[in-house]
Amino acid sequence: MNAETESIYTTGLQKNRANHSPMTPLSMIERTAEVFPDLPAVIHGSRSFTWEQTYERSRRLASALRKLGVGKHQTVSVLLSNTPEMIECHFGVPGCGAVLNTINTRLDPETIAFILGHGEARVLITDREFSSAAEQAVRILHNPNLVVIDVDDPEYTGEGKRIGRMTYEELLATGDPREPLEAPDDEWDAIALNYTSGTTGNPKGVVYHHRGAYLGAMAQLVNWAMPHHPVYLWTVPMFHCNGWTFPWAIAAHAGVNICLRRVDAATIWDLIRRHRVTHYCAAPIVHKTIAEVPDEMREGVSHTVRALFGGAPPPRSVLVAMERIGFELTQIYGLTETYGPVGICARHPRLATADFEERLEFATRQGVRGQALDAISVRDPLTLDPVPWDGKTMGEIMFRGNLVMKGYLKNPTATDDAFEGGWFRSGDLAVTMPDGYIHIRDRSKDVIISGGENISSIEVENAIYTHPAVSIAAVVAAPDEKWGETPCAFIELRPGMEVTEEEILEHCRQHLAGYKMPKQIYFETLPRTATGKIQKYMLRQQVNSRASFG
């Protein structure tokens, strides 16, 4: 030891097996299975498992993967819905030392093949529903050593076929439940690989470590003040940032995972009623689907349901609808590179006596840093100086701390760029309010620069959303010979509603300055990701294409 660092608190006080172990979320299921073995862990249609059973199945999976030759730092990819098998993979795959790669089920075969190849997957576990895309991807990849395993979920009754060497249940049968889940040697070891959306070029592989997964899961419980034994409905796809780390968090609190293959309002209300769901997470568009149902569909639900939303700043109409049905809604904020949500719009006691408009304004903020993260800060992207807390000066949201990714897989240049200056940059433009809460104004790529003036696409969208006929709105920049760019609006109308372009424009004139008015309006179905986000890059492509041929 360096003499300069020696002290009475270092000499003879080294780490050892008795006083130190790497942080890992694998410890969460081990403890819960020991303390609450008979409590329900997973419910999926007619199937249900206790925590003891889920732990045993996870150990069988880890053992079976070892027998297939899968070991430390190797990749197991999965193409799965929110099913029991997906939950088990969050423990069984890292439990054999491997890295779990959850793939977006809505991707095209070419992109799936790229992910399998780039991540050097040894095994692909795929649901029968996605067999067509999986089969094509495997053919494109042309890796004879890739082992394909089929999940044949009895709750899925649609088309699809088995394409693998064996079924998931047959794989589990080869595993030995006496073999323990293997804790990492180092908490910095990789636990998961998640790919970004890849709106331009190939997606980047975001690598998570055991320490971040553990702290992220624990932070979710603390930030949300989630009680023990919650009943959690899986509306967020588990392939998205590992379900915002909730597969591990629910295990830590011995909760119940209510599985859901796809978002459907009637099914969701039935599950909330039948299982007394207490918590769920979703993008604003999913909350909107849940809230805007006939009153009779909500009958029999009188308990409080708490929900997190993220992915985009929420339209006022969604907040009003959720308030009307009595759900407790909290906004969170984060990225794939930050294990999902790391910021939260933490509730202040003053809101208890606030009027509706004040509560509404507060709810639109992205909030403050949650537990386990060193900092979220709005900073000047050039100088890295923090912006003043004036609610006016825009900067870029940046992150620092344990809940930032290890980096991008096999892409040191992108990793170095991401961490330049000692901060991870989000690409989101925001202001800091006088009370320290962050409020997003736009994505940097979504700001519309018209005649030298910056226009927030979110501000224009919010104006359009206040029209009673509008269901969904998205605004992007359209090229303009005179102004450079002008706002272009894409709108989905509510069922049975009709409105003209001029009526929308007249409505916007009441809320927007003239230069912020949309110059083009299209009424059509908007493209979405699997998590409900509007795919603005596709709308920009449409606008540019129309401009080219216009």
Structure, explained:
The structure is a single chain. The chain is of the alpha/beta class. The protein has 3 domains: 26-218, 3-Layer(aba) Sandwich (Rossmann fold), CATH 3.40.50; 305-443, Rossmann fold (3-Layer(aba) Sandwich); 447-549, GMP Synthetase, Chain A, domain 3, CATH 3.30.300.30. 30% of the residues lie in helices and 24% in strands. It is built from 17 helices and 26 strands. The longest helix is centred in the N-terminal third of the chain and has 17 residues, at 51-67.
Helix content: 25-40%
Radius of gyration from the CA trace? 24 Å
Beta-strand residue percentage: 15-25%
Which structural category fits the helices and strands?
alpha/beta
Low-pLDDT stretches: none
- Report the mean per-residue pLDDT as an integer: 92
What spatial form do the alpha-carbon principal axes imply? globular
CATH class of the largest domain: Alpha Beta
Largest sheet: spatial strand order: 2-1-11-10-12-13-14-15-16
Please tag this protein with its features:
alpha/beta, Rossmann fold, GMP Synthetase, Chain A, domain 3, 17 helices, 26 strands, lipid metabolism, EC 6.2.1.44, ligase activity
Brief synopsis:
Belongs to the ATP-dependent AMP-binding enzyme family. The protein has 550 residues and is of the alpha/beta class.
What's the SSE blueprint?
Elements: H1 26-35, E1 40-44, E2 47-50, H2 51-67, E3 75-79, H3 84-92, E4 99-102, H4 109-118, E5 121-127, H5 131-141, E6 147-151, E7 166-167, H6 168-173, E8 190-195, E9 205-209, H7 210-223, E10 231-233, H8 241-244, H9 246-252, E11 256-258, H10 265-275, E12 279-282, H11 284-291, E13 306-309, H12 316-325, E14 328-335, E15 340-344, H13 356-363, E16 368-369, E17 375-379, E18 395-400, E19 407-408, H14 412-418, E20 424-432, E21 438-443, E22 448-450, E23 453-455, H15 457-465, E24 470-480, E25 484-493, H16 501-509, E26 520-523, H17 536-549
Parallel strand pairs: 1-11, 3-4, 3-5, 4-8, 5-6, 6-7, 10-11, 10-12, 12-13, 13-14, 25-26
Antiparallel strand pairs: 1-2, 8-9, 9-19, 14-15, 15-16, 17-18, 18-20, 20-21, 22-23, 24-25
